[in-house]
Amino acid sequence: MGTILEIKDLNIEFHDHSVPETVVFDFSMQLQEGEIVGIVGESGSGKTMTALAIAGLLSRHDITKKGQIIFKEQDLLICKRSILREFQGKDISMIFQEPMTSLNPVRKIGWQVEESLRLHENLTKEELKKRAIDALREVELPEPEKIYRQYPHQLSGGMRQRVMIASAMICNPKILIADEATTALDVTIQAQIVQLLKRLNSKKNTAILFISHDLSLVRKLCTKVIVMQNGHIVERGNTEDIYQNPQEVYTKQLIAAIPKCEKNFE
Ligand SMILES: Nc1ncnc2c1ncn2[C@@H]1O[C@H](COP(=O)(O)OP(=O)(O)OP(=O)(O)O)[C@@H](O)[C@H]1O
Ligand SMILES: [Mg+2]
């Protein structure tokens, strides 16, 4: 297992107010091939900003980023835009909380799932369709041929999130970043999506950065966890070590806040 992503001393600073504001301080981590790492922490702790920086989705203008994000020997913070675009969606994909805002309501599902393939691979219409239907099948959607022709509003929230995962996975990325990807879903569907991510991870060896408020989901999915507060990493380690023996007061509070009935699961 090799390191596929290395973040060194990432700092993210906004300049859209009169006083610059740093929202992420000295964030460092390594992601190994096929590993699933959770990032937890209260609202505003800098999880999304960190994720967007890795995905290359933070504007290069009014946000200053210091440090390095090394992927395939390139620093994503300073590499050419053409290189970044080559990685985006192909090697590094991201899924978000609300699939309805990421999906285009007037485009058929199939067309949207094919998007990254159209950008990164030179395929015929028939090949695109075959890959899209395979991707929809891979996320365990029933009747993928039918869903290929449907519109987002014809699907449930859980199905739409599966569609988003299919789009994100279609180029077999090395890294999938899931930012609160299950938060808007009900508990049963959340658990199903987590199971799906686990299966995709073991089948395709995609590393996953799983950002969530839900510490019990993180425990089910992630082998390592990073705890953030106010832009700082306060604690990190193997998930079971952190959950059974948290060192920092803040981590203890987060774990104490997990509802009791969820604490003793396998
Ligand atoms: N345009 C902006 N200008 C200044 N500060 C911003 C801007 N956008 C976000 N922030 C700040 O960045 C900090 C980190 O936000 P971020 O979205 O990364 O938090 P988060 O951990 O993802 O929270 P949540 O759990 O609510 O999603 C917050 O304090 C937020 O107020
Ligand atoms: Mg967030």
Tell me what you see in this structure.
By secondary structure, this protein is an alpha/beta fold. The protein has 2 domains: 1-91 and 175-212 and 221-266, P-loop containing nucleotide triphosphate hydrolases (Rossmann fold); 99-172, no CATH class. Helices cover 38% and strands 26% of the residues. The protein is built from 12 helices and 10 strands. It has helices at 47-54, 81-87, 99-102, 109-113, 115-120, 125-138, 144-148, 157-169, 187-204, 215-221, 239-244, 249-256, and strands spanning 3-14, 21-32, 36-41, 63-71, 74-75, 92-95, 175-179, 207-211, 224-229, 232-238. The strands form 2 sheets. It has a 6-stranded mixed β-sheet with strand order 6-7-8-3-9-10, sandwiched between helices. A 4-stranded antiparallel β-sheet has the order 2-1-4-5, with helices on one face. Helix 6 packs across helix 8 (157-169). The radius of gyration is 19 Å and the shape is globular. The site of adenosine-5'-triphosphate (ATP) has 13 residues, from strand 2 and helix 1. Residues 47-48, 179 line the site of magnesium ion.
